[in-house]
Write a structure and sequence with these properties.
It contains 9 helices and no strands. With about 140 residues, it is mainly α. Keywords: Membrane, Transmembrane, Transmembrane helix.
Length: about 140
């Protein structure tokens, strides 16, 4: 009645774990709030650049409303139609990012000139245009 020898089986290693355990995945999945806010500000700044370039000789209030509509896109009306919460109400930081981007465009227009002249800054701002699909992906993952 002796004890049987225990056989140690090796734990299988997941060969795809590197896809989730790296800095790029953390950025793309928006795990940190700082990355989320940075992408949100870059996204609203990019849409503000489009609004301010297209509307040179209009009132400030028209630019502000145009910027809100450009930044939220279908994020106000579409959720109402499908009985969901509109984007500015679902994320409290989004209206703050829109207001901050508007203030930068309105009070510091030189920042837009720097973005246009510097290829590195321009690429960073354009890469933030991927924020909206990433945010949708994050909401989808969190709902599962």
């Amino acid at each position: 009645m002796g004890k049987a020898n225990k056989v140690h089986t090796p734990v299988p290693v997941d060969p795809t774990a590197w896809m989730i355990d790296n800095d790029v995945a953390n950025f793309l999945l928006l795990h940190q709030k700082e990355v989320l806010y940075m992408c949100m500000l870059g996204y609203t700044y990019l849409h503000g650049s489009k609004v301010f370039a297209a509307n040179q000789n209009v009132s400030v209030s028209y630019k502000f409303v145009s910027m809100i509509l450009a930044c939220t896109g279908g994020g106000i009306l579409v959720p109402i139609f499908i009985n969901s919460i509109p984007v500015p109400m679902a994320n409290d930081a989004y209206p703050i990012a829109i207001a901050t981007s508007f203030a930068i465009h309105h009070y510091f227009p030189i920042v837009g000139e720097v973005v246009k002249l510097s290829p590195m800054v321009n690429v960073c701002v354009l890469c933030d245009d991927f924020f909206e699909p990433l945010e949708s992906l994050e909401k989808l993952i969190n709902s599962i």
